[in-house]
Predict the 3D structure of the following.
Amino acid sequence: MKKFNIAILGLGTVGGGTYDILKKNHDLIARRTGADYQVTRILEISDKAVAAHGVDPSMVAADADDILTADDIDIVVEALGGIEPATGFMLKAMENGKSVVTPNKAAVAASYKKLGETARENGVHFRFEASVGGGIPCLAGISESLAANEFSEIHGILNGTTNYILTKMGEDGRSYDDVLKEAQEKGFAEADPTADVEGIDAANKLSILMALAFDQYIPPMDIPRTGITGVTGEQLRAARERGCCIKLIAHAARKEDGSLSCDIRPTEIPFSHPLAGVNNEFNAVYVTGDAVGEVMFYGKGAGALPTGSAVVGDLIAIMKQLSTGCR
Ligand code: HSE
């Protein structure tokens, strides 16, 4: 049985969840993959995080190069978050023959073409399912299972933190600050929650979705966006009286002339629409394809284990491919 060595950069929420799943479900994953694996190195400066996940301190790398240029690492999970140094680390890992998996939407959206080209040039795999929708397999769904379709429209609830805040403010009448704090404690929010509440995180994810669904890369900074900081309890109550809720909706559509329109903004949704039932940290991606019609992907969009589930799914896909010599 082939054995793969995996390294994880960052043992934060997602890196930690990934490590825990790889450890807990080792035998099941190896059986389904048809290959064995071990996590041999971790990049993490927090001794507390290392101890919390029961990582043997001797596995902690001295620096990133100890992983990125090592001959004995097959796959690198980049879970540091942020654009740099994460992007530089991923490129270096690929240039050194390693396949890469990342949940890092900011880095993927910022350097979508460069990361893909570098993977192709170096004959390695690059997967980023966890970057959109946490544990929901929407990227594989769109780019593999639904690849026969010409997509005309995407509606998404792509940010768990803002959906959690709008749900709790709308249903329980709680204050914005109080619920944001809770979302941070639960590990949903970004290190700087401005990225969540201003719609930056959702724009990163919509950029990735559009690249896959419409074969057109739109940089996240070119996506018009309005966050949720201006949404008041009063507006949520008034919407409720009209039979609606307010959600931060990421929308993209192909226009008749072939160009794309897209934006992120708080939007009133009638309670009868399937997206109205997507609450708390749950996300949904609702796509319209010319053959399949309407499809909604739904599940937990944030959190250690849901997002780790998608990372490990990508690792399994890569190990299966590498086992058969497929690049
Ligand atoms: N901060 C992100 C969210 C984490 O709330 O959706 C998952 O990408």
Notes: The pocket of L-homoserine is lined by residues 134, 159-161, 188-190, 196, 201, 301-302 (CB under 6 Å).
